[in-house]
Amino acid sequence: MDAEDTLLAIRHQIEQCQACPLAAGRLNVVPGEGPANSQIMFIGEGPGYNEDQQGKPFVGQAGKFLDELLGYAGLKRSEVFITNVVKCRPPENRDPQPEELAACRQYLDAQIAAINPRIIVTLGRFSMARFIEDGKISRIHGYPHKVESRIVVTMYHPAAALHQPALKDALIQDFSRLRDIMNQPTPSLLEQNYTESTESPTKENPPEQLSLF
Fold first, then answer.
1. pLDDT of residue 1
2. Domain tally for the chain?
3. Which end of the chain is more exposed for a tag (fewer CB within 10 A), N or C?
4. CA-based nearest residue to 107, from 3, 13, 201, 26
5. Which segments in the chain show pLDDT lower than 70?
6. 3-state secondary structure the chain
7. How much is the pLDDT for 195?
8. Distance CA 45, CA 31 (A)
9. What is the pLDDT of residues 136-154, one digit of tens each?
10. How do residues 71-101 score in pLDDT, each as one tens digit?
11. For residue 125, what are the contacts with CB-CB under 8 A and spacing of at least 6?
């Protein structure tokens, strides 16, 4: 089964999922969308009202801002895969609960394995926490990290800038830096005075923060 067929199978599994209470309140599941061979994957937190209505990720105001941000990185939405850590809308757009994150983790892990992206960009603290334990987004946003065998770049969620305009400039700067990160060959990126580790991030073995500049 190729990556595209695998993603379709994952979508069908998510459509049937009843593993957590979010299933009872959803109108549509939002598995994510984008090319199966994308080299970069964006992972947000959870669908909002518009996403639940349409079954697509980032289609509201935050989605419009994300489209603008992608332009700063020299990207188009059609070139990247976009998804969330939970695939159904939390009530009133509240934060995802631990049991909801746990229920959806298998689907996110399967999507990552199928796409095998070179770079993962996390949008928001819940997405960041999937890869970097005990990270503080205000300190590490915009920087690449070596996590397992991938580059993970942590960023604020675009919706945060809609509520806190001061974060808009930070997001624009981070997406502009993303262009440089993408243009660096992975071996070059990893060899800049850092020791490569294949261990999963833990409190004792935190992910390495890589400097490009």
1. 81
2. 1
3. C
4. 13
5. 186-213
6. CCHHHHHHHHHHHHHHCCCCCHHHHCCCCCCCECCCCCCEEEEECCCCHHHHHHCCCCCCHHHHHHHHHHHHCCCCHHHCEEEECCCCCCHHHCCCCHHHHHHHHHHHHHHHHHHCCCEEEEECHHHHHHHCCCCCHHHHCCCEEEECCEEEEEECCHHHHHHCCHHHHHHHHHHHHHHHHHHCCHHHHHCCCCCCCCCCCCCCCCCEECCCC
7. 31
8. 12
9. 999 999 999 999 889 999 9
10. 999 999 999 999 999 999 999 999 999 999 9
11. 135, 137, 157
Give the structural domain span for 84. Answer: 3-209
The pLDDT, as a whole number, for residue 134 is 84
The two tokens of residue 34 are 């984008």
157 residue type, one letter: H
